[in-house]
Description:
Blueprint: H1 10-27, E1 39-44, H2 49-57, H3 62-70, E2 71-77, H4 84-93, H5 97-100, E3 106-108, E4 115-117, H6 128-134, E5 139-142, E6 155-158, H7 177-180, E7 186-187, H8 191-201, H9 218-241, E8 245-250, H10 252-272, H11 290-294, H12 297-315, E9 322-326, E10 330-333, E11 339-343, E12 346-349, E13 352-355, E14 357-364, E15 370-371, H13 381-388, E16 393-394, H14 408-413, E17 418-419, H15 440-449
Parallel strand pairs: 1-8, 1-9, 2-15, 5-6, 5-8, 16-17
Antiparallel strand pairs: 2-14, 3-4, 6-7, 9-14, 10-13, 11-12
The site of zinc ion has 6 residues, from loops.
Amino acid sequence: MRIPFHTKSVRFAATLATLAVVLAGAACSGGGDSPPERLVLIGLDGADPGVIDVLRTRGELPNFDRLFEEGISTVTDVDEPVFSPVIWTTLFTGCRPEKHGVTSFTLPSADSTRRVPVTSNLRRRRTLWDILGSSGIDVGVVGHWVTWPAEKVNGFLLTNYTWPPSAPFEKEWTPGAEWDTVGRRTYPDRLDEVVRPAVNAGRYFASEHFPEIDRLDPALRHYLDKDFAYLNAGMALYDARSPHFFTQYMESIDFFEHRLWMIHRLYENRYHDAPLGDLPPLDKPLPPGVLERIGPMVAQTYRLADRLIGLFLDRLDLEKDAIVVVSDHGFRDWPPGTRLHVGDGKYEEMPFWHSRHGILLAAGGPFRKGKADGAVAPEQLTPLILAAFGLPVGKDMDGAVRRDLFRKEFLEAHPVKRIDSYESGGKGSPAPAPVESPMDDQMREMLKSLGYLD
Ligand SMILES: [Zn+2]
């Protein structure tokens, strides 16, 4: 039914519109009391609620705006240590680190002579996508921490080692000989070859979405190119296969914050009057033009995330589908004298570093609108998504279902169910050590460049 724009009677038009909504609600199975047909979960490493607020007030994040307007928003609050692999594993298992086993960036090798970057075999609890898959939901998982070596899923999975963690990375990427020796980078195997045309063509994310890309130093350029590879691959797979649950990880916000926070803050101070607070002065003045060239880049990574959200909003119908955006932590200035746990047992005084607060946004399908009271703990994410699909939550998960994020009608139709455990498949026993691979040196190099390792 179409209502002409110039209709004479506004009240008549409003009545028709209301009727259309009611009819649509009756005709489809969605409308707030059914599990979503599709649920897309975007993981933004290091996305900070404060930065998002500031950029939104300047109108720079229109798709985040839509999520805030059409969904529920809150912050996440994590305990120490605020380390990405630990928190993402908590987010995706519903269990705290002492239960899921991924407690740091690196863990001792089998012979205890060295520390090896954490790998998926260490995870002692089933992942959200594994549970969804065994409940008959087809899944797509792209780029998340601690997913290599790839485990079998009911769908597809690109691990965090699908592409090299820190090697020089170019648009027309050709893997080196050592790369082919790294197995189980994707499930099914060699999925990276399937998505390479989308990756090399920059089909969804290309240099025009980050105009400064050619002026970045090689390390930053590498991270952006790697993110673009995962984003292009993820979108290509999503469009080709339309999984019912899809989750995509994006790394560059966190990476750019680590490397460029100071200059980001100086730029915000100079051009947007943001107070500098306790930040220490620079040792020497910046060369001319550097502030203008580099200063906007942290904000630019948030605009990339906004674009990613927008691509999914174009594809989803929030009447029946849902979208969730989550970050593992935020980023902030720290007052002088604050010693922070910045790596495996490494404590340092830092002027800026991870903050305990990330974001959680959930819109469409079963989620209500508004602002939630109180922060969400990372172990509450997996129970939240299980409940959104109408599936029971494991009593042995540490996180409780945040009923306050759902619409009332949805909870009436789908009261939260509980089962003793999802852990019957033999994943309960601890693996002895991380799997070593030719990627370890690159991974260590990456962790060093972010300040986590010496
Ligand atoms: Zn992180």
